[in-house]
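quick one before i forget lol
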Amino acid sequence: MKIRKLLFPVALGASLLMAAPSAMASTTAPSIEPNRGDSGVSFNVVTSYQDIPAAARAAVVAAAQKDGYESLKHEPGTLAFHVIPDPEDTTRIVITETFTDRRAFESHLRGGAEHAFRAVAARSGVKGPDYTIAGTSLEPLSSDGRTAASHGDDGSVYSVVAVDEVPVQDRAPFVASIQADAYGSLTNEPGTLGFHCVPDPTDPGRFVFLETFTSVDAFNAHVSDGPAKAFLALVAQFNVTATFTITNATLSGNGFGEPGGFTLPNQR
């Protein structure tokens, strides 16, 4: 999937938070359904939708938020649902979803909430879903075999989706470093809420990271912490190509640029 280069104006997230509820023509505060945590191993899906017409944007975004709300409310296998507006391109959104396993994802696809959202998107001429990944994440793991769980959130968090391409011969130490980074981040960083790394089931050298943080400051603290520093050193050693898919920024040197975006709450 080729994703256009994006930047992140924080104001867009705030404007959409106001736009989506107004589209529902409600005078009361919308109901919010929070995301749940998981054991650290889950089935993660990242998709994007493009070419959203300006006149339909509020309705499409609201339908995506409602999909998240209804899925979390009524589907035990749906653990998290994040709607991330493209901060530069108002015709695009990214949706990241976490499920207990593949069967839960397949059940979600058959559900009424997902069908309702896709119907709104289709009527509006929206292109997608364009899948970045659909697969099971690696287990966060300490050097002595302990694991760590991901945490839930209220839906309004800073999310990062990154794709790493690693030489296949370096895969084993790369995976070990990812697992140590995930464990250390989830256990020692209060601002790191979720850390999922999903190996591409069709490409042994491709890994997709889905990470959630309480804020941009929490993300910056994460990349400066010990586990992440050790992992990034390995990335440099193995000549890994890394791209942030929300902003389409390629890592080079210390150039993290604008790696992610703020999510919208799951609401009806």
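fyi Residues 1-26 have pLDDT under 50 and may be disordered.
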